[in-house]
Design brief:
Distance between the termini: 53 Å
Radius of gyration: 24 Å
Number of strands: 0
Shape: elongated
CATH class of the largest domain: Mainly Alpha
CATH topology of the largest domain: Rna Polymerase Sigma Factor, Chain: A
Helix content: over 70%
Structural class: mainly alpha
CATH architecture of the largest domain: Orthogonal Bundle
Oligomer: single chain
């Protein structure tokens, strides 16, 4: 799958990462030999596309020195695995298909369409009111993540929360939104 060199480095991963950070390009080759196949497997797990997975591995290694300069890495293997996983998740998020509305739907002004639009607007207003009822931390995270389409990391940077706190606020916020909407009858369901 990936070409490997025949030399065997006796240094551990963390020493190779330190050497690469210091500018020794041969360390990049040694890390490639050890991790290209593993990271390709991570890519296939998430992306399910051999070519896209290969591209992500190559791009990760192309920027590896810069990443190591930015981040203090204590244990290389779990760190590089996480970096690859995050790259794959970002690629999946970017490639979400968006459906375009057919032209006739954009210009259709029949009464039923008008009624649907009014119902949709009422639902959106109920959702906006329910969001306003959330605790401030949950409200901020819900708006940033769902309405502004920010990533967990972007929400964390914007709010000052850790990524785990953002996830917790989102989970609790979504649960509370569902309860508020059920209580007000906006979902049309009763539990």
């Amino acid at each position: 799958m990936f070409l490997r060199r025949r030399t065997i480095a006796t240094l551990n991963d963390e020493d190779l990462a330190r050497l690469l950070r210091e500018g020794h390009q041969s360390a990049l080759g040694d890390l490639w030999d050890r991790y290209a196949q593993l990271l390709y497997g991570v890519g296939m797990k998430y992306l399910k596309d051999p070519e896209h997975s290969k591209d992500e591995v190559v791009e990760l290694f192309a920027g590896l020195r810069d990443l190591l300069i930015k981040h203090e890495v204590g244990s290389f293997r779990p760190w590089v695995h996480t970096v690859m996983r995050n790259r794959c998740l970002q690629a999946l998020r970017k490639s979400r298909p968006t459906a375009a509305l057919p032209e006739q739907m954009l210009h259709n002004t029949e009464a039923n369409d008008h009624n649907d639009a009014v119902l949709h607007e009422a639902t959106l207003q109920a959702l906006e009111q329910a969001i306003d009822e959330l605790a401030p931390d949950q409200r901020m995270c819900i708006r940033s993540f769902h309405l502004e389409r920010k990533s967990y990391q972007d929400v964390a940077a914007h709010t000052g929360f850790s990524v785990e706190q953002v996830r917790s606020h989102l989970q609790n916020g979504r649960r509370n939104l569902r309860l508020i909407l059920q209580r007000t009858g906006a979902t049309g369901q009763a539990s």
